Amino acid sequence: MNAMTVRRLTGNLGAEISGINLNTLSPFEVTSIRKAFLDHQVVFFPGQRLSADSFAALAKKFGEIEPPHTGLDKHPDNTNVMLVTARASKGGRNYNDVWHSDVSFDETPPLGSLLHPMTLPQIGGDTLWVSMYAAYENLSERMKAMIEGLQVLHDGVPTFTPFLLDPATKDGPERLKKMKVEKPGCVHPMVIRHPETGRRALFVSRAYAARVLGVSEIESRHLINMLCDHCEQANFQVRWRWSEGDVAFWDNRCTIHYAANDYGVQERQMMRVTIKGSKPLAA
User: Is 100 designated active site?
Assistant: First the structure.
């Protein structure tokens, strides 16, 4: 292959990396990808071919794998790989069409995740990411001062409940009971400091930010909604149109993402592997 190249996609985040084979990475290429990942927050690799086992092996080059939690579907060939599926038999339902940071309701949310398509719809099904660095940096100084030091309760149960109670979800009610015990939610700072880059980022999302502590319910609800509206602006986004063989690798500590549900009852199935992270640091 040609030498690795990195092509920036937007002013705030996203880069396309070409000239490498993810099945046969050298130590130098792993280091270079890690640098691009930190610089651009989400990186894309077109033209790759990965089995579930090789996909998990790729993820291990960047950290320890976090196995899918009870609310997620596992790949039959490798239980470290989760399946993200929308099928015609489910009426084309896609439960990822809400902005979120993966498993932010855990005490130690993931460092990052990798995504690779198995089956794509003929049209639609793009994934979008937001730079939470840019979202924070573009707040007014008065707003930054107001939210400094605030804590947010993150809870995944309300968002997962419709999926797990869907009749098409295998063992859904039992998995929901287990999730309520295993993932009861946790509290994180509203503004965090990235442990590697040192940059500040907002750490809220529409899916999992349930309550701001120390304020009234009305204040909490409106503050979360306002910050989510701010973060979700197109100015802070990159959008990826999937093709067979693509791989995406994103930094869960400074991005949120959204799977567009614009493909009707067509099938869309992706493999995802998640890398273990650490407790978010207050800014």
Answer: yes
Compute the distance between CA of residue 139 and CA of residue 161 in angstroms, rounded to an integer: 33
Domain assignment present for residue 55? The answer is yes
Residue 102 is among the residues annotated as catalytic for this protein: yes
Closest by CA to 258, choosing from 233, 276, 277, 221, is 233
Candidate list 40, 93, 100, 175, residue with the active-site label: 100
Stated pTM of the model: 0.92
Which runs of E-coded beta strand occur in 91-219? 112-119, 127-131, 151-154, 186-189, 191-193, 200-202, 209-212
Give the count of domains, the chain: 1
Say which of 40, 102, 188, 268 is annotated catalytic.
102
pLDDT tens by residue, the chain, 283 residues: 468 999 999 999 999 999 999 999 999 999 999 999 999 999 999 999 999 999 999 999 999 999 887 777 889 899 899 998 875 555 545 667 899 999 999 999 999 999 999 999 999 999 999 999 999 999 999 999 999 999 999 998 888 888 788 887 888 888 888 888 888 899 999 999 999 999 999 999 999 999 999 999 999 999 999 999 999 999 999 999 999 999 999 999 999 999 999 988 888 999 999 999 999 999 8
Tell me the residue range of the domain where 158 lies.
5-277
Is 283 within the bounds of a domain?
no
CATH number of domain containing 141: 3.60.130.10
Catalytic residue among 75, 116, 175, 272: 272
Q: Which of 75, 154, 175, 257 is catalytic?
A: 257
How far is residue 107's CA from residue 21's CA, in Å, rounded to a whole number? 34
